[in-house]
């Protein structure tokens, strides 16, 4: 009640008293950290999250990320699987109402426009197989459905999978971590989409290293990133979402062997009334990949 009325300092004080009586209550330390943070007491928040980190073996409260966002620890390079899974399991029933209705989320529409434009340029009427990573409740899948023969949705959250299954959008749904899923595939996707997914994954390089071999030669990938203009390749925001440098993102795409088709900036959604700017990316796996000269036997011919 104190927190809901805006008195976060008093809420934090009361929670600290409760934790004196229940020191092993992980959820309590999470709340205490949140209240201290909103009251402007960063030191108190960090102290609470350090207690939380020691109690949260599965990482579902995201203590490591919260500490990293305030410079009190390393963020790591990969997805905080326990935290992201728990976050979206909890968020699933109200996901669309909150994200679309209240925050003006429009990434699926924006990515779909870019994909449609590239289909027209390439003369593609329909895709054979599409993987929608982090499919959530199917917002991206709804845009793609009419132009896809086989549409597969992959999400780390069982609750999200259950929500989208009711819509009947996808030909197949799988609860899985995206890098592991991509590593199990070889050149079978005509298009891979990831709408507001890689913002939870940290470094792009491991994702792209798994993604490129999963694409057919000539296949497309379309995804979004949040943007920051600092010198770092990526930056963990207090929202616990990663923002990427446009320069570093471009370099990661090129290093992964992808051709950049579209790279645009747009407002993705609003957060606390402020616009969140991001990048919309469409890239292609080259249709014909050159064979290295040292892989060709002496006297052999290299086919174009």
UniProtKB/TrEMBL annotation:
<keyword id="KW-0489">Methyltransferase</keyword>
<dbReference type="Pfam" id="PF13649">
    <property type="entry name" value="Methyltransf_25"/>
</dbReference>
<dbReference type="GO" id="GO:0032259">
    <property type="term" value="P:methylation"/>
</dbReference>
<keyword id="KW-0808">Transferase</keyword>
<dbReference type="InterPro" id="IPR029063">
    <property type="entry name" value="SAM-dependent_MTases_sf"/>
</dbReference>
<dbReference type="InterPro" id="IPR041698">
    <property type="entry name" value="Methyltransf_25"/>
</dbReference>
<feature type="domain" description="Methyltransferase">
    <location>
        <begin position="130"/>
        <end position="219"/>
    </location>
</feature>
<dbReference type="GO" id="GO:0008168">
    <property type="term" value="F:methyltransferase activity"/>
</dbReference>
<dbReference type="InterPro" id="IPR011990">
    <property type="entry name" value="TPR-like_helical_dom_sf"/>
</dbReference>
<protein>
    <submittedName>
        <fullName>Methyltransferase domain-containing protein</fullName>
    </submittedName>
</protein>
């Amino acid at each position: 009640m104190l927190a809901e009325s805006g008195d976060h300092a008093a809420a934090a004080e009361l929670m600290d008293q409760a934790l004196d009586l229940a020191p092993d209550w992980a959820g309590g330390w999470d709340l205490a950290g949140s209240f201290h943070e909103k009251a402007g007491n960063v030191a108190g928040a960090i102290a609470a999250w350090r207690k939380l980190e020691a109690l949260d073996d599965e990482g579902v409260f995201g203590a490591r990320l919260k500490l990293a966002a305030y410079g009190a620890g390393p963020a790591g390079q990969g997805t905080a699987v326990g935290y992201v899974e728990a976050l979206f399991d909890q968020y699933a029933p109200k996901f669309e109402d909150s994200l679309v209705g209240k925050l003006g989320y429009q990434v699926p529409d924006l990515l779909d426009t870019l994909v449609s434009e590239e289909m027209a340029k390439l003369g593609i009427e329909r895709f054979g197989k599409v993987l929608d990573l982090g499919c959530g409740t199917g917002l991206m899948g709804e845009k793609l459905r009419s132009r896809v023969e086989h549409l597969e949705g992959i999400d780390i959250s069982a609750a999200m999978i259950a929500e989208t299954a009711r819509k009947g959008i996808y030909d197949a749904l799988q609860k899985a971590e995206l890098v592991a899923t991509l590593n199990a595939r070889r050149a079978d996707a005509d298009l891979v989409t990831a709408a507001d997914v890689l913002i939870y994954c940290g470094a792009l390089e491991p994702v792209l290293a798994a993604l490129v071999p999963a694409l057919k030669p000539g296949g497309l990938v379309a995804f979004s990133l949040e943007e920051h203009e600092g010198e770092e390749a990526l930056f963990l925001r207090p929202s616990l979402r990663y923002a990427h440098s446009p320069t570093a993102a471009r370099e990661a795409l090129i290093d992964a062997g992808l051709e950049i088709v579209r790279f645009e900036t747009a407002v993705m959604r609003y957060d606390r009334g402020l616009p969140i700017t991001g990048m919309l990316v469409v890239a292609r796996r080259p249709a014909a990949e050159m064979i290295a000269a040292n892989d060709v036997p002496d006297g052999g011919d290299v086919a174009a």
